[in-house]
Amino acid sequence: MEGEAEIDRLPIDLLAHIFGLITSFTHLAHSRSRWGCQITDNGLYRMSFAKCISNLTSISLWGLTGITDKGVVQLISRASSLQHLNIGGTFITDESLYAIANSCPQLKSIVLWSCRQVTGNGLLFLVNKCGRLESINVWGTRLPLDCFIGLLTISPALQIKPEGLLLNAGVASMLPVA
Q1: What is the CATH number of the domain that holds 104?
Q2: Is 63 part of any domain?
Q3: 157 phi-psi bin (left φ>0, alpha ψ -120 to 50, beta other)
């Protein structure tokens, strides 16, 4: 696809060099089928200086277990055009959510699939600051029902995925306790 980079098992030096030369990328994607990818915080840091980063509207770092807040915060701080972000399966915390909220006012969707260190406070801050946010995927996180109610209070049209999360939680809370 034109204007899209798929990062896989490229050596980080080569990847950083390529990104330094290209200015027209709008999408950066990690292959979802490659859990063995070696992109790390250092790689994200080096990529963050590429000219194309400010043009990116979509970034997928799904399943990159070698990245943390350090790399994500650095990359996101320079991605001001970002509309879609997938950082599911990573080890980010609220620190990344605060950086996203402060740097990405155009954000429309975010995937936080299985980001178990994210808290309700980080999500509330994100939804408060990102007024264009339409969809958030929080499957596999450890968040209480009150958090989701708070998110919908801030943004009633927000789509919280997986769909039915609140419905299922509401049914479970009404079941009799033995």
Answers
A1: 3.80.10.10
A2: yes
A3: alpha
64-84: pLDDT as tens digits: 888 899 999 999 999 999 999
- Distance CA(111)–CA(140), nearest Å, equals 11
- In-domain check, residue 128: yes
Give the domain range for residue 156. Answer: 4-171
Backbone angles phi, psi at 12, to 5 degrees: -60, -35
Q: Can you tell me the mean pLDDT for 117-133?
A: 97
The dihedral built from the CA positions of residue 4, 9, 14 and 15, taken in this order, carries a sign that is: positive
Q: Provide mean pLDDT across the span 130-151.
A: 94
Residue 90 lies in a domain: yes
The whole-angstrom separation of Cα 44 and Cα 50 is: 10
The C-alpha atoms of residue 162 and residue 166 are separated, in whole angstroms, by 9
176 in any annotated domain: no
